[in-house]
Amino acid sequence: MLVQFFALTSTLVGSRAAGIPASVIVTTTLSGFLLVWSTLIIVLSAGSVGPEADIISDSILSRACTRNQFIVAKLIARASVVLGVYLITACAAGYAAYRYAASDVTLQTLATCISVVGLAVLLLVALGVLSSVVFNSTIVSVVALLLLWYVASPVFSFLGADYLSPTSLVRNLPAMLKDPQAPQVVQCSATPTSLTVAFSEHVDARSAENPGNYAIESPAGVPHQAQTATYDKTRTSVILSGLALTPGETVQVTVSEVADPGGAQVSAASDTAACTVPGDTPRSAKTEAGAKSLDRTPPRLMRLEATASSIRAAFTEPLKAETAEAIENYTVENPIGVPKAPRAATYRADNRTVLLSGLDLDLSVPVKVTVKDVRDAAGNTVSPRSNSLVHSEVTPWKYVLGFGLPALAASVLAVFWFNRRDL
Amino acid sequence: MAIKTTHDLTKIYGNKVIAVNGINLSIEQGCTFGLLGPNGAGKTTLLKLLMGLQRPTAGWSELFGSRMTPNAASVRQRIGYLPTNPRFPPNLTPIGYLDLIGQLFGMPAEVRKPRLASLIRAVDLLPAASRPIRGFSTGMTTRLGIAASLINDPELLIWDEPTAGLDPSGRKYTLDLIQELGHSKTMIVSSHILSDIDRVCSHVGVLHDGQIIYSGSVRDLKQTIGRNHVEMEIEGTDENIARFRETLQGIPDVIGHQLRGYWIEVRFRPDASLADPLLGVLRAASESGIGVLSLSSTKAQTEDAFIQLLEADQADGFSRAYNTTQTVGSRLDGAPQG
């Protein structure tokens, strides 16, 4: 585990340069515990009682020690060792990925995923101790656990109990890790030569420092173009400079295609802010609003809602119906990487949504929709940077129950069985 | 006062093996109780049931007035247990192991440390005190087990085959220790070696096929069964031995004899006093020119008693299903019952 940790740490600096998202690194680390190091955990916990039964009887249980005390202490000791190593490795790798890699996770999603995988590890320890209480042979105990851990996953999926399956957790870790909250424009402040736009959270510097992502009007209808955009990470704000704004005039800025590290683009509902340039307005500087500016903003895929048979995709602006209703313009993956073909696409202009129907979706795994060649009324094609979204109903608490309750049950069963066992 | 009683204690493993069968046993405080039986008789199972290490299939046992269960730690606080061929954590040293045991008994460090040091010295493990247990011989492991059983200064010692696998000096050491401890503590010692039980125990329970077929004092056992014969080691010519054997037939109260090499076993009438006929036997030997090298009764008495008990138990056949101890007792002319 430590080797894995050091290997990952050593690649972090390089991964930052290569733009590997933190979610990928964290997923790799946690998946390693669930699918690779779990074998070591199985061996460690499955040999905790059975092969030592004689020693336990002669040395410990013939003294002033109850069975309950012993087996609970054994469970705690095994769990402490395994969880200790796991938490040190996972937390260090997770934080390093969050801090140094291309961060697309939040501390909250990171903590949630580390906790859920920790519960899965705890379940494995409890099952290991239980099997070592039930079977005298370590080999039998290990084989039983390996079968349960690796082979039973498809059975769980078939029975609809996907949340008991470690492979299901591995599959859904990326969706659980990604930052679910879209950034919002919270305020702006202006000087005659610059405009500062503050965001509600960290945003991706590359998208934030593109001046083209800011539509500035002062007064309304008169566009201005910033020369440079500089992201201030400590204040989560962008300074747009190279402007020639008129003191006393109102400035409105509309932000597009700026995304947070998780890839969530700025919310359409709060992508605009307005402020006043300090100072008096020179009469000569006042201008009449010119002709309405042309729409050069591409439409964006804003939101997905999914049922077992359909997906509703919402866009940021009205679309050309003929492009929106062409089913070849949509790629649906469920789970990610497995294409599903919709039978029809129906556009509703009143709420700017497209209904993709005739699908057979498994909502226990993520659904990804990618759009191409869909245009708005002005003919702008949907931006390649905001043409796909992932819908996920993966909720960590289901895994908390899926692994936590069996872990508790296995622990109670281990105590019960150990009390019934002859030594 | 009985400190240990069992009530119809029965243990059946997996509906396949009957290890202990309806045992009712009472052990008085202060006695050294020997649990005697051939290999596989159920001695270790019985002791594990008494310790609460195994759950009885039926019946129960009580110790110090409390029923023994796997979680009866407070009762085990007053017991020192030495398992047969004990296995201890191989990576620990004797000091580490005894310290662990002392902590399990809740002994504070200021009591625990001096006690474990004196026990290690007492069982002669001082030179090996810093070595891992994994390299210990059987004798060293047993001595460590003895120290572990004494660390909590228990009222009752339960030692399962403490002389198993020991060399003669180790065996003597252990038996001497049992005799010494027997003066101050109640002890239950199991063994299949008759002479060990004979030497150190005041009371004995004979276990056969999972049942107690005799329970009482060793003295009663000998008196009941063994007093009607002696074994003599003799020397002399064949003619003299033949003359001696003829003479034996004429001695009152001598009912038979059997020659095995240079050993001759002479049997007397059970109700006869041993002094007069024995005097006649010795006089006959002298008059026949036979030298008497040794005359033994104790060992043979116990062995014969034991064998006779087993034979009687087997001979009882189906009647054992109803009340074994009573049946055997009646065949033993009123031997005390368990």
Short description:
The complex is a heterodimer of chains A (423) and B (338). Chain A is α+β, with helices and mostly antiparallel strands.
Describe this structure in words.
The complex is a heterodimer of chains A (423) and B (338). Chain A is α+β, with helices and mostly antiparallel strands and 423 residues long. Chain A has 11 helices and 16 strands. In chain A, a hairpin with a 5-residue loop joins β11 and β12. Chain B has 338 residues and is an alpha/beta fold. Helix content of chain B is 40%, strand content 27%. A 6-stranded mixed sheet of chain B has the order 6-7-8-3-9-10, sandwiched between helices. Chain B has a 4-stranded antiparallel sheet with strand order 2-1-4-5, covered by helices on one side. Residues 324-338 of chain B have low confidence and may be disordered.
Our estimate of the beta-strand percent of chain A is: 15-25%
Number of helices of chain A: 11
> Major beta sheet of chain B, specifics?
6 strands, mixed
Give the N-terminus to C-terminus distance of chain A in angstroms.
Answer: 35 Å
The mean pLDDT of chain A is 83
Q: Tell me the series of helices and strands of chain A, N- to C-terminal.
A: HHHHHHHHEEHEEEEEEEEHEEEEEEH
Strand order of the largest sheet of chain A: 1-2-6-5
Rg of Cα set of chain A? 28 Å
Which structural class should the secondary elements of chain A be placed in?
A: alpha+beta
Provide the low-confidence segments of chain A as ranges. 284-293
- Judged by helices, strands and strand pairing, the structural class of chain B is alpha/beta
Low-confidence stretches of chain B: 324-338
Average of pLDDT of chain B = 84
Number of H/I helices of chain B: 12
How would you spell out the order of helices and strands of chain B?
A: EEEHEEHEHHHEHEHEEHEHEEHEHH
Strand element count of chain A: 16
Helix content of chain B: 40-55%
Largest interface: A-B, 19 and 29 residues
